[in-house]
Structures are given as C-alpha cells and as structure tokens.
Fold this protein.
Amino acid sequence: GAVVSQHPSWVICKSGTSVKIECRSLDFQATTMFWYRQFPKQSLMLMATSNEGSKATYEQGVEKDKFLINHASLTLSTLTVTSAHPEDSSFYICSARDIEAGGPSFTYNEQFFGPGTRLTVL
Amino acid sequence: QKEVEQNSGPLSVPEGAIASLNCTYSDRVSQSFFWYRQYSGKSPELIMSIYSNGDKEDGRFTAQLNKASQYVSLLIRDSQPSDSATYLCATTDDKIIFGKGTRLHILP
C-alpha cells in the first residue's frame, strides 16, 4: 500500500518550452500532495503544498507563475514548469499524504514519495 | 519554525557493526518522527515512523525517541554495504520538516 508514481521518470527539453510532471497516488486518496526539488548533493527543498480542489501554497522564493500546480483529483497532482531554462534542471519529487481515517498516513501523518522526475533543460 | 538537526557526516561504519544515526528537534509539541533513506539519485523511502517515547524495532532497524530530550535516533544492526545512503530525519506539522540528512557509508 501507499504507492506514489510519477511520470515521466526523466525528461529532456529545450530552453523555453514547458514540461508537465504527473504525480499519482495509486492505492490511496491523497488529500495533500507536496512538490520538492533537489539539486545534486543538496537537501530536498519543498516548493509547494497542494490540497485537492484548492490552490497550491508556494514556499517563499518559488515562483507560482513558473511552477504551475494542479491538484484536480484525490489521486493526481501535476507540476508544470513553464518556459523552462537550464537553471530549472533538477530532480523533482512529489509526495502524498492521506490523513483520513483508515488511510496510510492516519496514524503518523507520514508522507509517501514518488520515484522522482529528472528534468534536464538544454 | 520547527527545526530538525542532523550531523551531515559522512559516518563510516564497518560492515556488520551497528550504525547509530542521531537527530534533535526544536519543537516540544512535535508528535511524529520519521526516518527516510535516500540513495543517490533516488527519492526518499520511508523506513521508520515513531510516535511514542522508547524504542521501536523493525528488522535490523530500531528507532528511539526521547521527547524530554527532543532526541530521536536510528540504529541499524548488522550493517550492510546496501545500507550506504543518506538518512533523513523528519518530523511533521502541516508539512514534513526534514533534517539535512546524514550520509552513511558502510565499509566492506
């Protein structure tokens, strides 16, 4: 249980194009999803928190118009990197949490991570 | 603002020995604590959750929580080369607060 998938696992794109990354909870309903970015040899950096059916909350310094997040259903969130530039090249990771009774996070409020998407912008 | 502190390492441990990873946190009201393992180039994997004071064992892993001292640790018995990774300590609020991680290197 508590499996989170991401698609694509890696993507290479040209500078100026937009890239969409999908995050799905496969066997539970994710009331909350989180998007992280991680540069090589650095810590995870939380970019934004999204709750199903409402607007995402972005961390300080993260441009909401550049990193568009949509959490349209209880099992799917998407991150779109708009007008990508080489400095956006990174490892993007989503995580999901379900705090509803009976859900996998109910006891401890854990988050479960997807496998990540490696983005390279040329 | 909650904070989680970890020694960045690297921590080198001989194969077969016990690896001890430590973490302190700043917020006395924190309730749940987690240890995640992250291999290079991979996403974090949850390996232990602990909620109550004391020890919690799962296979070769033991998590220890001391809320009075605001201290949580992870012991890995019979360390294997495959345990070499970065271990992230975390607590939770409305979102997870991670430490910066401790790099563990198991020496064959």
The two ends of chain B are 40 Å apart (CA to CA). The mean pLDDT of chain B is 92. Chain B is about 0% helix and 55% strand. The interface with chain A takes residues 31-32, 34, 36, 41-46, 49, 51, 88, 92, 94-96, 98, 100-101 of chain B (CB under 8 Å).
